[in-house]
Structure formats: structure tokens, C-alpha cells
Amino acid sequence: MRKSKKLHKFTISLDRAKKDKLFYFVVTGTIYHPKLKKCLILQRSKKEIAHPGLWGVVGGKLEWADLKNNPITRKNFDILDWEGLVEKLLTREAKEESGVDVYDPCYLDSVVYLRTDNVPVVCFKFAVKWKKGKVKIALEFEDFAWVDEDEVKKFQCIQGIPEEVKKTIEIYSDGGLQAPKVRKLTY
Hints:
Helix content is 17%, strand content 34%. It has 187 residues and is of the alpha+beta class. It has a single domain (19-172), classed as Nucleoside Triphosphate Pyrophosphohydrolase, CATH 3.90.79. Strands 1, 2, 3, 4, 7, 8 and 9 form a 7-stranded mixed β-sheet that branches. The protein has a two-stranded antiparallel ribbon with strand order 5-6. The longest helix is centred in the middle third of the chain and has 14 residues, at 85-98. It is globular, with a radius of gyration of 17 Å.
């Protein structure tokens, strides 16, 4: 992957975008701690629009600033590419929301949903390994817990979180299932 050293000037516009094809793009990450053999879950603030007060995992939206603040990795004829930007978003969100560094992402699955404010969302879910750091949750969360596949069932989670915890543990545990790997985080 060739990275450009300079930031190119470009304009983002919705003028020609088809309004019925616009979605938020979100990634989530179920963080696995190899020494604990558990996954991190976070309790969302009761003030959140989506899933207030429920337990979930780290995640966040891709923003226009992500394009402006990261170098273009390739000019694909007349199209500008940002390779690895989704994985970089996942790393940033893990750090911002939980205070820990992560690596080794594995794609779990995806979901498309409609928020209570009628905004459509495309969400890609990943498993990631804890690399270093002590958990320090961001203000939009109320609590955190390290859980295994049985303990997670005791929490009021966003639907699908217990299955993501179980699958993440299977992927990263010794002798566990091997999911298709995505590009390693090397940013």
C-alpha cells in the first residue's frame, strides 16, 4: 500500500448524491483481552440516541474529517482512495471510547438499521485484540466490564452483543475458530 506524503486538496459535496442512498457508516469493535480471555463491554449513556443505557462495544461513525485528515493512499485514475481508513477508524474509536490500543481486526458481520431519529446506518462489526492500556471510558459511557460468553448474558446488551463476544473469544482463543482476517492495523 503506497501512502501519499501530502494531503491533496479536494472537495466533498452532496450536490450530486442521491438522497435515498445516503447512510451513516459505522464500525464497531469487540475488544478481546488475551490474558483475561474476556471481552470489553461498555454501558452507553442514557442520553444516547441509539440504545440508551444498554451495554455494547466500542464504535463510531466515519466522518468527512477522516478523509481530510488522512493522506490519500492511491489515486485510482480519477478516484481518490483511502485504503485502511475503516481499520484506522476502528483503532481511533477504541482509543477514544475505552482508552486502550487494539490490533489484529477480524470482520464479524454487518447490519443495516434505522435509528429512532430515522437516520439509516450501515454498520460493520469487527473483533479486535487488546494491545495495551488501562480502560478509561469516555463521557458517553457509564460503566464497563470484561466478560466471557456466559457473563455477558447477565447484562442488558444491545441485541447481538452476546453473540459477538462469543465469536470474538472463539476467534482469538488458542485452538479457536479462524475468521477471515482483514488487513493488519499498521498505521
